[in-house]
User: Fold this.
Amino acid sequence: MTNAHTTNVHAGAESNPLIPIPAVAEGHAYQHIVVEQYAGACGAIISGIDLAQPLPDVAVAEIRRAILDHLVVFFRDQSLSPEQQVEFSHRFGPYNHVPFIEPVAGHPEVIAVAREPQETQGFAFGSLWHSDFSFLPEPPMGSILHAIEVPPYGADTLWSNQYLAFSTLSPGLQQTLRTLRGIHSATNAYSKKMQGIHDSFAGMRVQTSDTANEVIEHPLVRIHAETGRPALYADQQYTIGIAGWANHEAKQLLDYLYQHSVQPAFTCRWQWKVGDVAFWDNRCLQHMAMADVSGHRRLLHRTTVAGERPLGS
Ligand SMILES: O=C(O)CCC(=O)C(=O)O
Assistant:
């Protein structure tokens, strides 16, 4: 596939358009990848491709199609250096600056999602349901995790389909939600009051800041910029209120949405093996890390792909 945007995909992130290579059309017969659905609600395994090699544009366009159709895709047996992971990320869009979290030394676009054996079960980086950095004006479109070291069991990641979360609500509630804006903030994740918790993550360096207390409004129902489909856009980690509502009123509705939006029938769950890559769309998914293992090291490298300002109905 060729178009005017594809010429500069290897240029710096600054000159990389938000969608450097659009997805192939819906229903396209894949030629460069094999896509197998992984779970009922979301998720597909992509095989037949080595992400460390330079990918033809059409392969990138096919992967993008698979992400639009399945929301999160998984690749097995990959071996990407941080540079190669960054290169792969750039094919899907510019780097999205990651606030608060210190990057891997020498690789400013890569963060290490790391857990050391001495960390206790029950809480981990990303272990509350969330959509990445929804507190930003333009939250990232996608995130890419590559497993470098994983425990022999557990520490899975779960994703939940927010198209389904929206479409399974009654028409009346759907209509009400379409008129509302959620208030998002990093205050319960990265403000100074959270520094103690981050200090207990032995493998990661997080610098909390009062800037995390800033708030931003986004539509509670987000229209996906590429599929045009409505998705619920509120999460337990970052959505702290509803514009124009009192806190005690907003809490009732948001608590309901939080438990509705991550029910098991909307989710898929991935058990990591070394070499796995997961690439997901934050615009229509929430995800969480399962904090159920101690005594083992876990290290994944993450790159983050920029996205657009969330659109409402
Ligand atoms: O470690 C995981 O399984 C997920 C990490 C996470 O939530 C994130 O990278 O946003």
Q: What stands out?
A: Residues 247-261 form the longest helix (15 residues).
